[in-house]
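Long-time lurker. I teach an intro course on protein structure, and each term I like to show students one example going from raw sequence to a predicted 3D structure in C-alpha cell notation. This year I'd like something fresh instead of my usual example. Would anyone be willing to generate the C-alpha cells for the chain below so I can use it in lecture? Attribution to the forum is fine with me.
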Amino acid sequence: MPPRSRTPARRRRRRLFASSVLLIALSAGGLALYLNRHETPAAESPPPPEQAGTPILDAARARAGLDRLPVAWNRNWETYDRNAFGPGWSGRGGEPALSGGCTAREQVMKRDLTETLVGDSNSCLVLSGTLDDPYTGERIPYDRFTSSGIEVDHVVALGDAWRSGASQWQPEQREKFANDVGNLLAVQKQANQEKGSKSPDQWQPRQAYQCEYARRWVSVKERWGLSVQPTEKSALVDMLDTCGPPANR
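-- Reply from a regular --
Happy to contribute to a lecture. Here you go:
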C-alpha cells in the first residue's frame, strides 16, 4: 500500500489536471463564440438578385457562354409591343420599385453617375452628378431640373429581346427582364437613340468599350435564355477579341 504522505500530492495533481481541462474547454468555447461573432459579416447574403442584376461574365466565360447560346433568326418582330414589358418603359412612368426601395432607373443613375447629389427626403432621387458615357467616352453633367443629355439604355433592347425569345414569355418574366439592372446603363442620349433596338452587328459603341459591351450582351442573353442571330454572333466574337486573345491562342 502506498505511503499516506503521497496522497495529498496526487490530489493536487488531479485538481490541477481537472482545472487544466476546464480551462481548455472554456478557451475553446470562447474562441468558437468569438469566431461566430466576428465571421458573420463574411457570411452575409449577397444583395437580392433584382438589385444586383445579371452578373457580368469575364471574357473567357463570355466566349464560352456565346458558344452555348442558341443561334436563330429573329422572329415575331411584327408583334412587338413595348408595353408588354410592364409599366415604366413605355415612357409614361410607373415602373416598380426593387427590393432596395428604388426603381431600376433610379438605381442605375445612382450606380453609373459620379459626384452625385441625392434628395434629402428621397435618397433614390439623383439631383445632380456626372456621367462618363461608356458608349462615346463623353463626360456629361447631369441636373435633374434641366434638360438632360442622359438616358437609361437597355443594352439588350426590349425589342431585341422580344425577337430573340421574350415574345414567348409570361408578362411577369418580361417585366423582370425590363428591370434587370445588369442590362441597364446610363448613357449619352443621342447614342442611345442611334442604337435603338439594334444588335451588335448593326451598332457598336466606341472601340474602348466593345469588350465590356459584348461581355454584358452575352451575359444577359445567356441568363435569360435568348437566342442570337448568325451575324450577331459573328460580331460578338469580333468584339470579344478586343478583350485580348483567349488563353489557348
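Some talking points for your students: The chain has a mean pLDDT of 84. Residues 14 and 46 are 51 Å apart (CA to CA).
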